[in-house]
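W.,

You were right to be curious about this one. When I first looked at the sequence I had no strong expectations either way, so I just let the prediction run and decided to look at it fresh. Below is the sequence, 45 residues in total, followed by the output.
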Amino acid sequence: MDEREQHLTTTEARAGTTPHMTRYILPISLGLVVIVFALILFVWR
């Protein structure tokens, strides 16, 4: 068996780049959920 350690850079290990879409998608979807629940609350009153 070959016992040598393989050293990879962060980009090589994840095989690509990180587009950072979570920082936009998470707050937008959270805001939409809050708006929808607020509308449901006001409609059912």
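Here's what jumped out at me. The chain has a mean pLDDT of 85. And, maybe more interesting for your project: Helices lie at 10-14, 22-43.

Coffee later to discuss?

I.
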